[in-house]
Amino acid sequence: MRIAIISDIHANLEALEAVYEFIDGQSIDRILCLGDVVGYGPDPSRCLELIQERCEVVVAGNHEHAVLGLLDLDYFNPVARHATHWTRDALTEAELNVLRSWPLTHVEEKLTLVHGSLDQPDLFDYIQTSWEAHLSFQQLKTPVAFIGHSHVPITFMLTDVVDYSQEDRMQLDPGAQAIVNVGSVGQPRDGNPDSSVVIFEPETGNVERHRVPYDIQTVQAKILESGLPDFLAHRLADGR
Ligand code: ZN
Predict the structure, then answer these.
(1) In contact, 29 and 71? CB cutoff 8 Å
(2) How far is ligand 1, taken at its centre, from the CA of residue 37, in Å?
(3) pLDDT, tens digit (0-9, with 9 covering 90-100), for 103-115
(4) Which of 40, 61, 168, 180 has its CA 20 to 30 A from that of 72?
(5) What digits encode the pLDDT tens for the residues 26-59?
(6) What's the CATH architecture for 3-238?
(7) Where are the domains of the chain?
(8) Residue 175 CA, ligand 1 centroid: distance in Å
(9) What is the pTM assigned to this prediction?
């Protein structure tokens, strides 16, 4: 079984199409999505449609909750707030109902999915330190959890202590739990502008992270034409 896990598409259609094309060449059995399908980018409806077509499970991100009015926009900086209002206006009631149907967490025998953190999924905290990972490990009932939200790929492992790795290829230790941040499809922030996607094989514990280039200039032009903040276009090029 080969499972592709994607996150933080942020209405970036060119990035999502490039990632799907990559996935098509990887003998993938299932695609799972960790939320923030919309927000920031210029193609929320089309991205939502493509995610519904191909992702077996989707959990909600903070941008979905913001668009739905379930999250206080005071948490957002002015750019994110502007993008949230823009996105809400761009979506139909039926599309908003799709976002509303997504759960905050998804748990199956071998894996857990959550956008931010497991200790309080509705608050969308970040897991960036060993302590923050520890709080989620306390709630984790499966061998591995996949998360997004920070747009920075990293893997935390729980043995006697919480350790972390930024390796792109790892074999998870069957005796230790792990939390894998899969990075972002539509707005990477680790200095690499290419889309990030993770492939997981539950039988072997293999986790591979891949980076997929896409047509950034087309997305930038769409953002600049759309009335979304210019900053959102510029940041795509440097992956910050
Ligand atoms: Zn995000």
Answers:
(1) no
(2) 8
(3) 999 999 999 999 9
(4) 180
(5) 999 999 999 999 999 999 999 999 999 999 999 9
(6) 4-Layer Sandwich (3.60)
(7) 3-238
(8) 31
(9) 0.97
